[in-house]
Amino acid sequence: MLFEQPSARREILQWSLFTAIYVIVVGHLASRRLLWSDEITSVMMSRAPGWGVLWDSALHGPDTLPPLNVLLMRLTRLPQPWIELGARLPSIFGVWLAALSVYSIIRSAARSEAAWCGVFLLLMTAALPYAVEARPYGLLLGCSSAAVALWVYSNRSGASPLVTGALIATLLVAAVWVHWFGVLAWFVVGILEVWQFRLRLRPQLWLPLVAGGLLCLPLFPFAMHAKEYSAVMVWRIPDVWSLWTLYAGLLPASTLVLGLVIGVVGAREGSRTSATQNETKRLAPALRSAVMLALIPFLGYLLALGGVGVVTVRYTLAGAAGVSMLIALALVPLVASRRTLALCTCLLAAGAFEEAAQIKHDMTEVGAVRNQIGPFSILRTGADSGDVDLPILVSDIHVYLPLIQYAPTSLAHRLVYVTGQNPQATFQMERYAQWFPVRTLSQEQAFAATRFLIYVAGDDLLLPGALNRGWHVSAEPLGINPQTFPRPGYLLLAERIP
């Protein structure tokens, strides 16, 4: 499919170099970035004591997604201090696969320089941050993009529709098994096939797709679990503004600025050249695939309106591949000079590195917490004050989960999540308690004690609850955590007034 031109050796060398740099940069970020609450959910599930327990926790536990991502995370898990890297290896691979797919699609119709423009544009979008997140969105992007790339390849002479159909079906099944919105990739491939061949559909392609659909039937119990979970969630009803935010979230400002610069360069070049009819015909399959991938956020929006109720940028991340390809393919009929295309590639490569640098700048590193620069230094302040046995109550799930993930053993057993503050979080934590070693108390149970510590951070309602009950709360915090992870907070001592 790839590297069949006389320049194959040069392109293989380029891809080897790109892969090495990608693995080094993204692996570095993935190994140092702290896990956040949803990632910790996936990590806990992947580290279940057995495959059966893992499957059951995916079917009845605190997450609502299909199980393939956590199954893969179990295969890639690594010991300390590489837990974060091991958990994110599937996502790292998924975004790399998406980059390869973008390159393949554009390369089928244009020069390698244009294909590299598409790759670096992809890494400047919202795709790169999800390469360093232990959730299924990177894999969803990779499987969806690769399925479309194989569809483009299936249109070439010499390609076996039956073999490519089987591979496409495998990728589409995998997309659904990692995330429910993977079903959008099925619509994309189906629409592309109808668009390309009208009523002359290829049974060698459709039969594997139908068979692949049957492999999604075992997900029905997981869908029922997700439906039960969604019943307690409060979703914002999608509107036209939601559609705008989906596309705006895919493209950071830096991508738009560089796209504008490249557009100006292309316009100048376009005054000197124009695409031939053969070039336009060669572009057609790639352009159609780019359009359909770029429409995935719109399809996700329609799916949310149709009853799913929620759609976010990460659910429709495959749209980033489509938008990247559209911008890169727009250069093909405009830019005649190979040198100009190479310059555009260099600009976009610099933009991709800037995006990686921004991720590193914004993240909190694992070492900051493990060296006690973060929240645990102030938790220890409570221990040093003599309150070594008092429970430390937390009422924000997004604070509690990172705390128990990274807390030393001496502190982890003291951390308690207080339910009832948020119905959604309470529902989720009740399922956590069924499968994982977490401690939960209701508000009534928590306030039955005479003294406890409150870690005030995030959406905390424990402090107002204590004050409303007439408790004495220390005027001066025992410790202050200015760190951004889990969230800025402080530690207070609460005592019941006799």
Number of helices: 24
The outline comes out as: elongated
Give the class from helix and strand content and strand pairing.
mainly alpha
Approximately how much helix is present in the residues? 55-70%
What's the short story on this structure?
With 498 residues, the chain is mainly α. 64% of the residues lie in helices and 6% in strands.
Notes on the protein architecture:
The protein is mostly helical and 498 residues long. Helix content is 64%, strand content 6%. The chain has 24 helices and seven strands. The protein has helices at residues 8-32, 37-46, 51-60, 68-75, 83-107, 112-124, 137-154, 161-178, 183-197, 203-214, 220-230, 240-250, 253-270, 277-294, 296-308, 318-331, 338-362, 366-370, 375-384, 397-406, 409-412, 423-435, 443-446, 462-468, and strands at residues 392-394, 415-418, 440-441, 451-457, 472-473, 479-481, 489-495. Strands 1, 2, 3, 4, 5, 6 and 7 form a seven-stranded mixed sheet that branches. The longest helix is centred in the first third of the chain and has 25 residues, at 8-32. The radius of gyration is 25 Å and the shape is elongated.
Summarize the helices and strands and which ones pair or pack:
Blueprint: H1 8-32, H2 37-46, H3 51-60, H4 68-75, H5 83-107, H6 112-124, H7 137-154, H8 161-178, H9 183-197, H10 203-214, H11 220-230, H12 240-250, H13 253-270, H14 277-294, H15 296-308, H16 318-331, H17 338-362, H18 366-370, H19 375-384, E1 392-394, H20 397-406, H21 409-412, E2 415-418, H22 423-435, E3 440-441, H23 443-446, E4 451-457, H24 462-468, E5 472-473, E6 479-481, E7 489-495
Parallel strand pairs: 1-2, 1-4, 2-3
Antiparallel strand pairs: 4-7, 5-7, 6-7
Helix pairs in contact: 1-5, 2-4, 2-20, 4-5, 5-6, 5-7, 5-16, 6-16, 6-17, 7-8, 7-9, 7-14, 8-10, 9-14, 13-17, 14-16
